[in-house]
Amino acid sequence: MLGDFFTRALVAGVGLAAVTGPLGCFVVWRRMAYFGDTMAHSALLGVAISILLSINMTLGVFAVAALVAGALLLLQRQNTLSTDALLGILSHSSLAVGLVLVGFLTQVRIDLMGFLFGDILAVSTEDILIIYGGGIAILVLLALNWRPLLAATVSPELAEAEGLKPEISRILLMLLMASVIAIAMKLVGVLLITSLLIIPAATARRLSATPEIMALVAAVLGAASVIAGLYGSLTWDTASGPSIVVAALLIFLLSLTVPTARLFGRRENHGA
Amino acid sequence: MDMRTKGETLITLTNAGVRSGHRILVEGVDLTISRSEIVTLIGPNGSGKSTTAKMATGVLKPSMGTVTRKPGLKIGYVPQKLSIDWTMPLTVERLMTLTGRYARSEIEAALAAVGAGRLLGAAVQELSGGEFQRVLFARAMIRKPDLLVLDEPVQGVDFSGEVALYELVRQIRDTTKAGILMISHDLHVVMAETDTVICLNGHVCCRGTPAAVKRSPEYLALFGTRAAETLAIYEHHHDHEHHDDGCVVSKDGVHAHAGHHHG
Known about the structure:
The structure holds two protein chains of two kinds. Chain A is mainly α. Chain A has 13 helices and no strands. Chain B has helices spanning 49-57, 92-96, 104-113, 129-141, 159-176, 210-215, 217-230; strands at 9-20, 23-34, 38-42, 64-69, 75-78, 147-151, 179-184, 196-200, 204-208. The radius of gyration of chain B is 18 Å and the shape is globular. Chains A and B meet through helix 8, helix 9 and helix 12 of A and strand 5 and helix 2 of B. Chain A: The chain crosses the membrane at residues 6-29, 41-74, 86-108, 129-148, 168-201, 213-232, 244-264.
């Protein structure tokens, strides 16, 4: 079944979308879009370091993304530069350092375009195992911590007063994002990962009445974007990663025409 | 009403304070909150009200003194303001289960208790300020808390809304016997039902019943006489006797009700 490269791409993409949908909702809710971008940009640095130290690439990318996120948290506490300036510094410098390091690695041939824009059609069965293994782990962690994560997102202050630990929720979300970036990099590339987090979630918002439904709708819409994008790229011979993002964008634009009163999961108002 | 029977002690702060770096946020706070008791913290911005409340609820650890809480103390919290962004789709029903799981019937009962039963299916972004406030009360109360913490409960609510809210607080106290800790910088209004007002300004500057505090020289020095004229306007038909010692911090910190009789 997984013999065909196109089928493998479909299976891998849908598996990834199932994870980026729910996690992307948190990115949208917590206004972490640029933050996610910064973590993604550091992935190339992760690749370079993995090769230098000859460690597992997925692990290396995860570690560097998590480190960058941690660095940002520490810098934010200094109360000096604004968060967006800090993100700008981290985002572009980690990308630049990554590119420079890759240039030094003359003994290994690196497909730079593959890392920047992804190569979902080159996905191996082993990659699929990583995506589904990692993806299921991420979804299980999300599901188990859903209530505290959501409470911390709605109001950290309230969550804290009622005995939850919003700071831990925040760290958990960052680690989950670093994991998603590590498993998604090969598929859509460091420059497009955040689009799979943000666009389906943003589309789902207009169609959903509760956070849980939004997470579910985002996963379904993400999967639809992957399928539409891949078939589009097959039909018109376009780059597969960007085609998926374009499909997600088209679905988003389409959703703008749906009247907001039509919501999934909306209860009838009682007596109102 | 007879002398109110005070229940078990929920929280005790003894000479408690918090230091942040070299700065002392608040120090020397003695405070107890018991079941069915209403304690109000007042003070200007930066006086340590929130810090004190956070010490009491356990969000902040005291860097001086001690804080003891009843084991397993359950806290319900009504935040000062909660702006829920449009990107977060949240119905009232879902908001009610934000920090815990409850049956539909419990949710309906909790909303009905604050007169917000018909809002169950509404999106929180569509609620008016007063409706949202009631829903937040219901959300805190569904936890059946031992202690209800109200942060600036009447901020942004108009006068008749204030009266209604205080009535709600009184009702909650009477029916659930929860202890209530209120934080207020609105010095003009302190609920007359308040058993103890603690006036903070980096330390406890005075304390006692609302009537005692408004006459205390420390309070007048801090907020001026105009504030005193309008403090505790909900002090209706009381025939209390108060000692004028409300502003002196006693060593045991529990003197506030001495000589205070509810008629």
